[in-house]
């Protein structure tokens, strides 16, 4: 607690009042320093106990892994063709070779626009004659970011043979093919209007512009900037004329059902949904969990796709157009009403024909993942993974040794009783390195005499060494599978005879598993887990959570630290009051001296005046 008051002292007496008060208070503040040092010791002890508690928690987690059959009876599955079939095996899988042939993958229900939903770039109706001369024979086309200039031949199309609008269309197509290559852009004729659109299934953006001079677009019925592009982020109303079929040809209200879920939109002027976009509608469909579909606009093909989230015969996409013209044979999205179903995966496993709704399934403890149909049988080989079991056991032993080493280190640390926690004044007189070295000794051995920790270590070691009774297995001790102590001076450290352990895993895997965990709950991992659970609870009561993240620390040390903090605050208040009282006494003395000096001066003046 910090309290400060600015004072001006010793003006009359000439005394160093501040120093005198500090000297008088020094013994009092030593009492506070003692409390702070005790609080620091408790905090250091708490850190050490929590460190030990955290190490027990990590060992407990590793011990839990050793109580799982999946970590002690590991099976591997290897496919002869991982590009088509991959597999993993659980501990329930039976060793052997499994042949599988896939004739069809499972698929979800899917409906797609019957064609590109965007309307071709369409010019205004042309009337004879259409004259192309030197002042209007050029325009530019930008296709998928590539721009080309189209130069037309000078000619008048007056409707006579060889000079019709169909001939004009053919002449432009030839020029466009020459510029971009055949099959890139389609030039069409819709009644008396020319059209442009990307050819093929890929539908990139196509834009017409007039160029710098000799603009031919006006003569062909187009305006510079006309483009083939479906912008799904613009309001559906503003994009209506970009669709091949107008979504509002049947009115401004659009409603439909997908898998029985109703979607309604009012696009009338001032209507609630006037600014809704195609992407908004697709998002609404996706957000409806009961519809259970995924809908998206495929910008590559310029089509809308709706897929069921599930696969197999039970999956479906059911479309019902209610009002407006979004769905239906001539709807804007060109997706017909009706119901489409998914398909099951069809395959044979060891000669048995099987059908599954998913491409991922588990049979007999083997999980299969189908990614393609097969030309010939694929073989999945299942066998014991002895190395994985060995690695799991080694990880457990390593963690056990690590925790045991930490406890033994803390319990045998030397205690330097002459190195008490430093006071603030002492720290001010030392360098950072000196403080670090001092505190290293001051923290040393703070739990070295803790009998409860010694008992924990003894119980943990006993759970490792004691025989496992009633397991029904071949092994009763870890030493029988090659895990044992070597030197008593290592305080219980375990060593692994790798050859002996691997032999036990290869020859008697089930018995190795029963040594660690069994139905009777007497395995090494079973009983050690219970012991660690009790020890962690005990250390938590003593010093708080192993993670240290608690809103209120009700542990023994936590309460002691809190109590000392309160006592220090209370004592600081009292010392401040006592210090203030001393300053008041000195101030009274200064006042008395000032008054006495004034009286002396007056008397001296009086005597001097009658002389």
Overall description:
The protein has four domains: 29-71 and 388-539, no CATH class; 77-106 and 345-384, no CATH class; 124-225, no CATH class; 234-340, Alpha-Beta Plaits (2-Layer Sandwich), CATH 3.30.70. The chain has 13 helices and 26 strands. It has helices at 17-66, 69-72, 165-180, 217-220, 278-287, 386-412, 424-428, 432-443, 451-465, 498-507, 509-516, 524-543, 556-610, and strands at 75-79, 85-89, 96-104, 110-112, 121-122, 130-132, 138-143, 146-151, 155-157, 185-190, 193-198, 206-209, 227-228, 253-258, 261-266, 293-298, 303-308, 316-323, 338-341, 345-349, 352-356, 360-363, 366-370, 378-384, 483-485, 494-496. It is flat, with a radius of gyration of 45 Å. The protein starts with 16 loop residues before the first helix and ends with a helix.
Helices and strands in order:
Blueprint: H1 17-66, H2 69-72, E1 75-79, E2 85-89, E3 96-104, E4 110-112, E5 121-122, E6 130-132, E7 138-143, E8 146-151, E9 155-157, H3 165-180, E10 185-190, E11 193-198, E12 206-209, H4 217-220, E13 227-228, E14 253-258, E15 261-266, H5 278-287, E16 293-298, E17 303-308, E18 316-323, E19 338-341, E20 345-349, E21 352-356, E22 360-363, E23 366-370, E24 378-384, H6 386-412, H7 424-428, H8 432-443, H9 451-465, E25 483-485, E26 494-496, H10 498-507, H11 509-516, H12 524-543, H13 556-610
Antiparallel strand pairs: 1-24, 2-23, 3-20, 3-24, 4-17, 5-11, 6-9, 7-8, 7-12, 10-11, 12-13, 14-15, 14-18, 16-17, 18-19, 20-21, 22-23, 25-26
């Amino acid at each position: 607690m910090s309290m400060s008051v600015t004072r001006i002292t010793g003006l009359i007496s000439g005394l160093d009042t501040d120093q005198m008060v500090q000297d008088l208070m020094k013994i009092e503040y030593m009492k506070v320093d003692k409390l702070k040092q005790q609080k620091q010791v408790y905090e250091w002890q708490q850190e050490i106990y929590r460190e030990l508690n955290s190490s027990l928690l990590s060992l407990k987690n590793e011990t839990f892994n050793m109580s799982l059959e999946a970590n002690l009876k590991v099976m591997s599955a290897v496919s002869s063709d991982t590009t088509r079939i991959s597999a993993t095996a659980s501990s329930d899988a039976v060793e052997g070779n499994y042949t599988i042939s896939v004739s069809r993958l499972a698929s979800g229900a899917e409906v797609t626009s019957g064609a590109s939903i965007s309307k071709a770039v369409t010019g205004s109706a042309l009337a004879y004659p259409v004259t192309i001369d030197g002042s209007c024979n050029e325009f530019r086309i930008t296709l998928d970011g590539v721009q080309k200039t189209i130069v037309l031949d000078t000619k008048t199309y007056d409707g006579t043979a060889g000079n019709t609008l169909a001939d004009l269309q053919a002449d432009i197509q030839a020029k466009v093919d020459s510029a971009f290559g055949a099959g890139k852009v389609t030039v069409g004729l819709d009644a008396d209007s020319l059209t442009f659109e990307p050819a093929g299934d890929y539908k990139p953006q196509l834009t017409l512009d007039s160029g710098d001079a000799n603009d031919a677009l006006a003569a062909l019925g187009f305006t510079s900037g006309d483009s083939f592009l479906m912008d799904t982020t613009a309001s559906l109303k503003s994009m209506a004329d970009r669709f091949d079929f107008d979504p509002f040809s049947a009115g401004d209200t659009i409603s439909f059902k997908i898998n029985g879920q109703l979607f309604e939109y009012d696009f009338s002027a001032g209507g609630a949904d006037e600014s809704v976009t195609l992407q908004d509608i697709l998002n609404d469909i996706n957000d409806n969990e009961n519809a259970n579909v995924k809908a998206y606009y495929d910008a590559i093909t310029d089509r809308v796709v709706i897929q069921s989230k599930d696969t197999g015969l039970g999956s479906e996409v059911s479309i019902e157009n209610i009002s407006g013209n979004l769905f239906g044979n001539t709807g804007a999205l060109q997706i017909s009403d009706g119901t489409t179903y998914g398909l099951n995966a069809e395959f044979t496993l060891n000669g048995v024909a099987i059908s599954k709704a998913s491409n991922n399934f588990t049979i007999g403890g083997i999980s299969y993942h189908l990614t393609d149909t097969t030309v010939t049988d694929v073989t999945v080989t299942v066998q014991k993974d002895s190395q994985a079991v060995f690695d799991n056991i080694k990880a457990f032993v390593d963690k056990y040794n690590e925790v045991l080493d930490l406890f033994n280190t803390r319990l045998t640390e030397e205690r330097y009783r002459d190195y008490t926690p430093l006071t603030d004044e002492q720290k001010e007189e030392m360098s950072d390195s000196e403080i670090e070295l001092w505190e290293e000794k001051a923290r040393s051995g703070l739990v070295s005499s803790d009998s409860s920790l010694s008992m924990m270590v003894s119980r943990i070691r006993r759970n490792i060494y004691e025989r496992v009774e009633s397991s029904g297995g071949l092994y009763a001790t870890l030493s029988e599978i090659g895990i044992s102590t070597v030197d008593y001076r290592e305080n219980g450290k375990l060593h692994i005879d790798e050859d002996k352990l691997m032999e036990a895993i290869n020859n008697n895997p089930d018995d190795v598993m029963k040594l660690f965990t069994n139905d009777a709950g007497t395995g090494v991992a079973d009983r050690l887990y219970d012991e660690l659970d009790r020890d962690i609870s005990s250390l938590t009561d003593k010093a708080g959570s192993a993670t240290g993240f608690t809103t209120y620390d009700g542990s023994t040390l936590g309460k002691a630290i809190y109590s000392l903090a309160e006592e220090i605050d209370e004592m600081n208040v009292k010392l401040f009051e006592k210090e203030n009282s001393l300053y008041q006494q000195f101030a009274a003395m200064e006042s008395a001296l000032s008054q006495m000096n004034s009286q002396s001066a007056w008397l001296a003046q009086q005597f001097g005046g009658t002389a």
